[in-house]
């Protein structure tokens, strides 16, 4: 399948997952064809995602299951970025984690001691916050007490929602907002898009050449690309409706109904 004139202008592509390549377990229309066309044209690809529910290995398996070719070195998650950041934190310490097992594993692999389900949870040195399906009031209480005692507060992203087949689900930003409201202060750090760390790592991985970042969120994908100095393409298969694009700041370089509509002829 030939690439569009727009796609031929770029050497590398940063591809969001939820709302761009797929929604839930359903690929967006002709997205697999679009990805295959990029590979046929030898374009550089990085899957750049704020997905906090899955490990990079699980994401690769899901992509293959949905019909997308992918390799582990092409996947860059907010959880992996968190691990790299925490590994550089002096002194290690104890961490209380609101999040999936994938996020707990990333924190542990960075060298911190996980104190979830222990008497030391409210005395953690670091509180990490991401969405997960079993989030409850008890987790909010423990996180609040730890932060008010001086723990560093780290959020995986400020994504308020993410698209699923039955509508929008609350994202990590919604959970983080609850902790910030209870503690009456903002997080000390945010790891995922639109923060620069993920984009800088992607640039290093891809090398020289013009980069296009594609995704479905103005406040994550488009803003993150703008901060990194990349062109952006907004797809309308996820969190953003067309009437939200007019007057948006920053505005995307390109807008398309889907990934395929942007990349294929």
Index terms:
single chain, 265 residues, alpha/beta, Rossmann fold, 2 domains, six-stranded parallel sheet, five-stranded parallel sheet, 10 helices, 35% helix, elongated
Beta percentage is 15-25%
Spatial shape: elongated
Uncertain runs are: none
What is the overall number of helices?
10
Identify the strand order in the major beta sheet: 5-4-1-13-14-15
Helix amount? 25-40%
CATH homolog superfamily of the largest domain: HAD superfamily/HAD-like
Determine Rg (CA atoms, Å). 18 Å
CATH class of the largest domain: Alpha Beta
- The chain-level mean pLDDT equals 95
Give the tally of structural domains. Answer: 2
* Reported CATH architecture of the largest domain: 3-Layer(aba) Sandwich
- The assigned structural class equals alpha/beta
Q: In sequence order, what are the helices and strands, one letter per element?
A: HEEEHEHEHEHEEHEEEHEHEHEEH
């Amino acid at each position: 399948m030939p690439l569009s004139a727009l796609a031929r202008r770029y050497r590398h592509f940063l591809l969001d997952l939820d709302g761009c390549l797929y929604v839930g377990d359903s690929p967006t229309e002709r997205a697999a064809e679009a990805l295959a066309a990029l590979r046929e044209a030898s374009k550089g690809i990085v899957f750049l995602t704020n997905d906090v529910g899955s490990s990079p290995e699980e994401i690769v398996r899901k992509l293959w299951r949905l019909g997308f070719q992918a390799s582990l070195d092409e996947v860059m998650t907010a959880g992996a970025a968190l691990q790299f950041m925490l590994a550089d934190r002096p002194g290690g310490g104890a961490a209380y984690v609101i999040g999936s097992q994938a996020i707990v594993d990333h924190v542990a692999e960075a060298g911190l001691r996980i104190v979830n389900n222990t008497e030391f949870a409210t005395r953690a040195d670091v509180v990490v916050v991401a969405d997960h399906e079993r989030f409850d009031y008890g987790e909010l209480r423990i996180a609040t007490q730890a932060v008010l005692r001086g723990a560093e507060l780290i959020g995986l992203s400020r994504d308020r929602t993410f698209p699923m087949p039955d509508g929008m689900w609350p994202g990590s930003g919604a959970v983080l907002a609850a902790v910030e409201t209870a503690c009456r202060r903002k997080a000390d750090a945010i790891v995922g898009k639109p923060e620069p760390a993920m984009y800088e790592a992607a640039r290093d991985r891809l090398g020289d050449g013009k980069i296009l970042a594609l995704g479905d969120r103005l406040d994550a994908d488009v803003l993150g690309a703008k901060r990194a100095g990349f062109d952006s393409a907004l797809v309308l298969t996820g969190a953003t409706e067309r009437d939200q694009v007019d007057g948006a700041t920053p505005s995307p370089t390109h807008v398309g109904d889907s990934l395929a509509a942007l990349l294929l002829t």
